[in-house]
What does this fold into?
Amino acid sequence: MIRGRKARLQVFRIVAFVLFGAFFVVPIYAMFEFSTRGIGENAPRTLANWQAIGTYPDMVAGIVNSLELAAITSIAILVVLVPTMVWVRLRLPRLRRVIELISLLPLTIPAIVLVVGFWPMYQWLGNNFSDSILTLSFAYAILVLPYAYRALDAGLAAIDVKTLSEAARSLGAGWPTVIWRVIVPNISSALLNAALLSVALVLGEYTIANNLLYPNLQVSLVSLGRTNAGVSIAVAVASLLFAFALLIAISFVGRPRRMRSEVA
Amino acid sequence: MTAAGYPAVTGVGRPMVGGRRLSLTWLGAVPFLAYVGVFLFLPTLIIAVGAFFGEGGFTLSNFSNLSRSYIVTATVNSIILSAVTAVAGAVLGSVLTYAIATGNPKGVVRRIAVSASGVLAQFGGVTLAFAFFATIGPAGFVYLWAAQHHLDFYASGFWLYDLRGLEVVYLYFQIPLMVLVFLPAVDGIRPQWREATESLGGSSWHYWRYVAGPLLAPAFLGATLLLFANALSAYATAAALINQGGIILPLQISNAITSEVGLHEPGFAKAQAVVLIAIVAIVTALYGVLQRRTARWLQ
Amino acid sequence: MSTTRPGIEVRLENLSRRYSGVTALDGLNLTMAPGELVALLGPSGCGKTTALRLVAGLEDADGGRVVIGGEDVTNVPANKREIGMVFQAYSLFPHMTAMQNVEFGMQLHEVGVAERRKRAVDMLELVGLSAHVNKYANQMSGGQQQRVALARALAIEPKVLLLDEPLSALDAKVRARLRDEIRRVQLEVGTTTLFVTHDQEEALAIADRVGVMNAGHIEQLGPPTTIYSRPATPFVAEFVGLTNRLAGVVKGGEVEVRGKRLPLMKPDSTDGPAIALVRPEAVSVAADGDMSAGPLVGSVISTVFLGATSRVTVDLGDVTVLAQLPTSDVGAITAGTKVRLSLRTDPVLIARDEKAATEA
It folds into this structure.
């Protein structure tokens, strides 16, 4: 009786995984398939679409823009968050809940709503300072804030910030030294984690860039898609593979730190 | 107790006088607060003010403009799209969750399934649109294969780029999101409860009807609400799939910002944004309430 | 309680169960008399919980039968066997009050609202929780939750009551009190009960008979006093109570240990070297100067005060011996004192070759 029930359960599980697996894998495979099609019936697979990516200057410009934005945003968010979070842990514990709430707020505000408020701000910015696409990093830092905060919070929780900094201070270190040479090396994997998450998010961002009329990777991709499906899908696959690689990097970065804190 | 002229000492031993010492500490939080003040709260303020205040002060004219037929249609479409994908995503997602939860908690299958869900839940926007285009678009291999076998998906019209298409595409991230949100609750169901029900004379039906069902209902409902809010806020996927037009509210907001309309009626987009964020906020708050109930029973 | 059903006989016949190559139960046989409380005692992995779950129907047997009240229920699903079960933890449904938990089984049996409410109140009173009827599981202590679980299991008047280590997850003090409560309730209701535990004190305290299990079979089945004072195998002797292992030689129906000849529990054991298993209570301690106590001299390593009795650990040079005596007899014995040990001439059990099986 029990055996029968267990057997039925396994059958259900297999069927479920196969069906859902197909639903999720097929579209990804379809992108690979589409981007490697040759011309004409029964033509062999070709990487022509992939090789052609470089011949579309707007697309290349979009990719470069996004990479620059990713770098700037991830560095900027770390520069703002790390000292703040350390300081709050040491000196302003009452502010901790507030900072946490604020940092998680962007998760609940849709990007399409946020960009309505950004529009007049970026108009002003463009007229008075710069209309470079790189100013998007101001907005992007807000988008990555929740993810960076969570990653850094986990990293800081695993070390005793108070003791480390007091020890350093007692040895004569100034605050910049404490943060740069004592804290940062000990949360290196959390930093990397936060940076990688930020990069992934920035590279995939479309809503804000599109509505503020800046040509980042995703925006250029959509434009290219309207004229050349094959090459644009090749770019999409490339960005997918890159995101996948980032994810694997993130999961490897996370592990050693956890083991160490268990031993401690 | 203080004598006149002496600063009172608080329980922590810090001088209460708001002197230089205290504010230096607060200075440390200023960069962060200033930054979020400008780039998080200021945009929100701009939206709120712009929606409710016009040329002549406080006005609700922006909101009355929302009664334009295309806005009403878009809002209704958004709600339908979100509701359909929330319910479908919840039902399908809970089936998948059950399949995952009933396996070895430390097994490979589980770890892969959970990581994949984490990735796919974020997998929205442009890449998703392209993926479905490559699958069941007019040149997609699945469509072509089916057409070769006399099954034309688009016999009754090309639906990929309208509401029905979005419903299918949205499931791609709704189902994994359901797994992520609902799995912890399903994990909280103890095997002893099923065995206790059996020992008391109950069948599988009794177990689901009186024990597992009521216990999981708040989590299920909460997750459905979360899926609803998620779909309502989504912009990129629809924008990438649909070239022109604004069949859902986020697309209308985009039009309102970037088009001529936006220049002449700055409050229009903001009013729409207020409506969207209001719905999302209410739904999220309800989710929070249901979460607490779930945590109480299934922790 | 006037509405209890008379006790029912339960038989486990040749039960076996294997999990992926491991034999959990190996032809287990047990007959439980109506109204009896049998405790299955053993270390983890011995199969006691498996046996219980086979009686419950929560697992399928690979061989053998389960017979409840003369009816072969081996192929009857768990929810039709009319059993009552109390689990080690997480017994109660968290979304129901104590009252609702107890009523639940009766609800499934389609007992009328008024009657099941009355029975639930009676059962909760029986376990001493009348004041907690409307509380939820997370508002009650572990001990209280287990009482509710007991009331819930008994409310449906099961043919057999099954308890799967119900006290293991509780604090020591709660454990002792609840253990007696369970026995009191069981005696009052008269249901045949199977109680699984790894705690020998529990088993000895409340069972009518104890079945000591090891590696899938029962090594000895009998009343607690027999299990304790006349262990049938070295495993039983060492699992239940404390045991001293003293090297000796078997000769002619007796074993010679440290110059003293002790009768054997199994007088027909073959001659040769053996290990005598001696209980600490059988070792008496006397001052060094007391020559009448015999030639065994050693020095005390430690004295442990256990209340009415105390345990003295003595170093004989090549082996350490535990002695248990009334605290009033301990007197001036402290660490370092030289003492003389003598062994009471009770029949002893012997073992051969370090934990090997004993003679047939």
Remarks:
- Residues 143 and 177 of chain C are 9 Å apart (CA to CA).
